[in-house]
Specification:
Distance between the termini: 45 Å
Structural class: alpha+beta
Number of strands: 3
Number of helices: 7
Radius of gyration: 20 Å
């Protein structure tokens, strides 16, 4: 595999990633043995999730299987970018709220250069979406809602850019958990009742 810029320096990269409407809820970590699960403010103890503790990395999503996909990337020697992209597997387990047709925004910290790189994969408007096009249909500005407001989905392109420029693992390795989950996975009881 060819060497990529920043490849070796991103092993400890911090990635802030929003995959469309990906809810963040701790699924992998457990409380430290002997430590009670408490909130600083008992009135705010609304979660059933334990507090999270991590020393070197953390992979969290709305579903345990997609968090496991991210954790697997760290275990294979990948970095935070690889883990974030692998958690695309959440699209298989959270199909009702998340898909590749969304948007991706990421902040990637490069400890070597001490810089934060921003990736904004919101998609682009079609080439025919010109001011004249919208005016000819009676709009002063492009509409905010409906089919004329749609853009090309940006998630896939954003993740591919992140992996190509800042990831350590191959696309095949990163997508393997999502592909495996697409073949079938254990359904949670709550989902089976919907």
């Amino acid at each position: 595999m060819p060497t990529r810029p920043f490849r070796s320096s991103l092993a400890a990269a911090a990635v802030g990633l929003a995959l469309a409407a990906l809810p963040l809820a701790g699924q992998q970590a457990q409380p430290r043995p002997g430590q009670p699960v408490q909130s600083a403010d008992p009135r705010r103890s609304q979660t059933q999730k334990p507090p999270l503790h991590a020393r070197h990395w953390m992979a969290i999503t709305g579903k345990p299987l997609s968090a496991t996909a991210g954790a697997m990337m760290f275990q294979k020697g990948g970095n935070a970018v690889d883990a974030a992209a692998a958690m695309l597997a959440a699209g298989c387990t959270m199909w009702d709220t998340l898909s590749c047709g969304g948007e991706t925004q990421a902040l990637i910290y490069d400890p070597r250069t001490k810089k934060v790189i921003g990736i904004d994969a919101l998609g682009v408007a079609p080439t025919g979406a010109t001011p004249e096009y919208y005016r000819s249909r009676g709009y002063a500005n492009p509409p905010e809602y409906g089919p004329l407001a749609a853009v090309t989905p940006g998630t896939v392109g954003g993740l591919l850019t992140m992996l190509a420029e800042y990831g350590k693992l191959s696309l095949r390795e990163v997508l393997a958990p999502a592909i495996q989950m697409a073949d079938g996975y254990p359904m949670e009881a709550q989902l089976s009742r919907t």
